[in-house]
Design a protein that fits this description.
Strand content: under 5%
Low-confidence stretches: none
Radius of gyration: 14 Å
Shape: globular
Largest sheet: 2 strands, antiparallel
Strand order of the largest sheet: 1-2
């Protein structure tokens, strides 16, 4: 079932969202300071491409204070607008019964987009 839902997701916009994440990741990696943020955006791209069947868990090797500082910087780099966009799409998809699974995936992406540092994708 996850494969079927991922195919529908990719056909109806998931591919374009993942490409946008990859392009923004490459733009962030142009500077040395932007490399960690670019890597987190690549993490978002992977989940945006195939969100069904993936789980976002706290990282077992997270270094607390550094993750908090990086997440706060991430909010100003673009994390808040990305998260709000995913929340908006999640609410839009949840209007219909058929769209609820896709809305739930957008909410998962919103949580990851809001605080990507200190998370692992399983």
């Amino acid at each position: 079932m996850n494969l079927f839902l991922n195919i529908i997701w990719i056909v109806f916009g998931g591919f374009f969202v993942a490409v946008e994440y990859v392009v923004s990741s490459l733009a962030m990696m142009l500077t040395i300071i932007g490399i960690p943020f670019g890597l987190q955006t690549l993490k978002l791209a992977g989940v945006a491409l195939v969100p069904f069947g993936t789980k976002v868990l706290p990282s077992p090797t997270s270094s607390g204070c550094l993750n908090l500082i990086m997440n706060v910087i991430w909010w100003f780099v673009g994390g808040i607008p990305i998260a709000l966009t995913h929340i908006g799409f999640g609410l839009l998809f949840c209007i219909t019964i058929i769209g609820i699974p896709f809305g739930v995936q957008h909410f998962k992406l919103a949580g990851l987009a809001f605080m990507p540092f200190g998370k692992t994708i399983v």
